[in-house]
């Protein structure tokens, strides 16, 4: 249903040089699959670890989810789990119970299952698991399409405040290390910041500089994502004040100006349906992942959200198109020297056949003027 609604909203567009320069607003139909909510962090704003489930699903259960993802016309399967699980004793025990020698072996097998989906499914992976080591990334790289690891913040003071006091992997230098590891492993990455967790406006600009310099170094940042903090019941920051819509939009606009027209700026339409028009005006060019599982919710169906997106984009004479999980500059053997090239012809056939569009063709990253040093400030 989501794909049909999105296709109906598309404006006919060819693949000429001039059309590629036209501004496109994109999104991706995704099937989120939570593997475990066990997490080594206890962020002051996050309910993820306390909602369950904690046990890893069996491969039989995963296979059932993949069939459901295909039935709902997803193109992407987002694997979600807590952070810091490679050495977590409970997770290691669960992996052994399921017949694997490690959590990484378990993840690799799931990636193989996604890679093996038949021609009617067209499922591709996105990992949202937090930082992975370079060794882990290189091991899984032949089967890994893309990742999402948020920098979250460049403000070191959050280490001593509710937001990140009990979250060692959220320190700016460790997040930057994880982002750079993805670059070393040639993994296309979506990263960005979380707005409203106690950081300063100045630190948001510093975070953009950090991301920009990481991309200049490895060229692997496929989109910059801006997320807004929402106070969650049951968390230490449940009573923390929310950032206003205007301040959030101001941050989005700063990101769009900082990175220029060649870097997609991503904000989730699912989280901000009331701001879709204003987000477009602020410079958003990608509305992130639309969960096909929403289509089962009569109160918030995917089709209704897509219709709202289509109306706002058309009102601004823009093109709403569905994108591939991997942004087009990275759909090449340069970025996928392992298993993925076997599916690249299939991916291109899907995309250029009209079902989904390769979007955001970068014309080369240009360093913005007056760039600051992309290095997290020290706590001292």
Shape: globular
Order of helices and strands: HHEHEHHEHEHEHEHEHEHEH
Amount of helix:
25-40%
Number of helical stretches of at least 4 residues: 12
Quick one: biggest sheet?
9 strands, parallel
The CATH topology of the domain at 2-28 and 123-352 is given as: TIM Barrel
CATH homologous group name of the domain at 2-28 and 123-352: Aldolase class I
How many DSSP E strands? 9
Instruction: Name the poorly predicted regions.
Output: 1-22, 353-380
> Average pLDDT, to the nearest integer?
82
> If you compute it from the alpha carbons, what radius of gyration comes out, rounded to the nearest whole angstrom?
20 Å
**Could you name the CATH class of the domain at 2-28 and 123-352?**
Alpha Beta
The percentage of residues in β strands lies in 5-15%
**What separation lies between the terminal Cα atoms?**
53 Å
Q: Quickly give the structural class.
A: alpha/beta
- CATH architectural label of the domain at 2-28 and 123-352: Alpha-Beta Barrel
């Amino acid at each position: 249903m989501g794909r049909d609604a999105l296709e109906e909203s598309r404006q006919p567009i060819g693949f000429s040089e001039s059309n590629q320069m036209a501004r496109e607003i994109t999104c991706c139909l995704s099937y989120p699959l939570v593997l475990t909510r066990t997490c080594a962090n206890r962020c002051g704003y996050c309910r993820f670890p306390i909602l369950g489930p904690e046990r890893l699903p069996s491969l039989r259960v995963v296979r059932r989810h993949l069939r459901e993802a295909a039935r709902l016309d997803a193109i992407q399967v987002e694997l979600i789990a807590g952070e810091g699980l490679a050495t977590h004793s409970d997770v290691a025990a669960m992996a052994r119970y399921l017949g694997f020698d490690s959590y990484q072996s378990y993840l690799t097998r799931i990636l193989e299952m996604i890679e093996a989906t038949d021609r009617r499914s067209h499922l591709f992976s996105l990992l949202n698991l937090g930082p992975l080591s370079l060794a882990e990334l290189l091991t899984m790289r032949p089967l890994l399409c893309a990742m999402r690891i948020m920098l979250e913040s460049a403000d070191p003071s959050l280490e001593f405040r509710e937001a990140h006091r009990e979250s060692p992997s959220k320190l700016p230098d460790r997040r930057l290390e994880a982002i750079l590891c993805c670059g070393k492993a040639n993994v296309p990455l979506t990263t960005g910041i979380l707005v409203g967790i106690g950081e300063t406006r100045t630190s948001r600009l510093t975070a953009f500089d950090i991301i920009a310099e990481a991309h200049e170094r490895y060229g692997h940042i496929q989109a910059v994502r801006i997320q807004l903090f929402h106070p969650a019941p049951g968390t230490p920051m449940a009573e923390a004040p929310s950032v206003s819509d205007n301040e959030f939009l101001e941050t989005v606009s700063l990101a769009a100006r900082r990175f220029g027209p060649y870097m997609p700026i991503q904000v989730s339409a699912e989280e901000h349906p009331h701001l879709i028009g204003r987000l477009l005006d602020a410079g958003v060019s990608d509305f992130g992942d639309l969960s096909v599982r929403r289509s089962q919710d009569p109160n918030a169906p995917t089709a209704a959200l897509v219709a709202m997106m289509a109306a706002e984009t058309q009102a601004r004479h823009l093109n709403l198109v569905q994108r591939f999980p991997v942004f087009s500059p990275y759909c090449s053997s340069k970025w996928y020297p392992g298993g993925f090239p076997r599916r690249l012809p299939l991916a291109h056939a899907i995309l250029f056949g009209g079902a989904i569009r390769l979007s955001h063709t970068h014309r080369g990253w240009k360093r913005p003027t007056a760039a600051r040093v992309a290095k997290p400030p020290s706590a001292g």
